[in-house]
Amino acid sequence: MRDLNEDGSLDNPGDILYTVPTRTGQKDNYNLGVGFSATWSRPLDKKLQDQCKEAAAANIELMKQTTANKRLDFEIARLKNCGDLMKQGIYFHPKSPYYKVCADVVVTNPGGVIPQHVHSIPSVSAPSSVPESPESSRAEDLGAPLQTGLDQPSP
N or C: which end of the chain has fewer CB within 10 A? Predict the structure, then answer.
């Protein structure tokens, strides 16, 4: 205890008083690592991969068809509404930006009257032996001989 002074306090507090050698096995080491990595994988079950591709293609086709159906519904509604309004004499002014909405709609027969369609049927002159009345009281006029019993002609 030589570092104590006469009053019993340390002369140099915080100074290293002694060292003890301790083996750590640590040595100076300098390392430089350069690496390259590559991975290649192949699915063992190709059937699942094919099913996934088929499902994706079917889903894309379904979305396309749904879009086409909605477009058709829109165009039919536009055609009907524009046609109904045109029949009533309601339409956009040609200088209006909305004129082109119904510009391709054509209304034929706006009054709703269908033009009369007539065919001429030629009349056939009746032979003189046939009575003019379509009704006849004689069986022979019906076209076949009337027989009763044992091949007896009817009166």
Answer: N
Q: What is the pLDDT of residue 149?
A: 57
* Torsion, CA 138, CA 141, CA 147, CA 151, rounded to 10: 120
Amino acid at 93: H
Do the domain assignments include residue 94? Answer: yes
DSSP-based three-state secondary structure for 152: strand
Residue type for position 66? T
Question: What is the pLDDT, as a whole number, of residue 62?
Answer: 97
CA angle 135, 138, 144 (to 5 degrees): 100
pLDDT, one tens digit per residue, over 103-114 is: 999 988 766 666
Task: Count structural domains, the chain.
Answer: 1
4 occurs within a structural domain: no
* Maximal CA-CA distance, the chain: 177
φ, ψ for residue 152 (rounded to 5)?
-95, 125
